[in-house]
Specification:
mainly alpha; 6 helices; single chain
C-alpha cells in the first residue's frame, strides 16, 4: 500500500488521540525541537554522502516533524498543517514574482 500526506496526518492524529501512544501524547513543541534539528542534520549528511535511499528516509523523518508539530498546533487551536502549507505557498509565490506574476 502506498500512503499519502493525508494518511500521515491521520496516523499522527491517531498516535496523539486518547488511546494513542503515550510517548507521542506527551510531546510538545519544545520536546520535539531537538528532533527537528537532528533530522535536518541527517538530511544534510545523506546529501553529503550522496546516499539517496537514505535521503528519502531522512526527508520522511523531517516531514514527520512538521506533521507532528502541526498536529500539536491544531490541538491547541493555533494553526494546522494546511495553514503551514498555505503559508509556505504564499511565501514561495511572493519570492518568485518573475515566475508567478500572473497569479496576483
Amino acid at each position: 500500500m502506498a500512503y499519502g500526506i493525508e494518511d500521515l496526518k491521520a496516523i499522527m492524529a491517531q498516535l496523539r488521540a486518547p488511546n494513542g501512544c503515550n510517548w507521542d501524547k506527551q510531546q510538545s513543541f519544545a520536546t520535539l525541537a531537538p528532533y527537528a534539528i537532528e533530522e535536518a542534520h541527517e538530511v544534510a549528511e545523506a546529501i553529503a554522502e550522496q546516499n539517496y535511499g537514505h535521503l528519502c528516509e531522512e526527508l520522511g523523518d523531517l516531514l514527520l516533524q512538521v506533521v507532528f508539530q502541526a498536529q500539536i498546533a491544531q490541538e491547541q487551536q493555533l494553526f494546522n498543517f494546511d495553514d503551514v502549507v498555505n503559508a509556505i505557498s504564499q511565501k514561495m509565490i511572493r519570492r518568485h514574482p518573475h515566475v508567478f506574476e500572473k497569479r496576483k
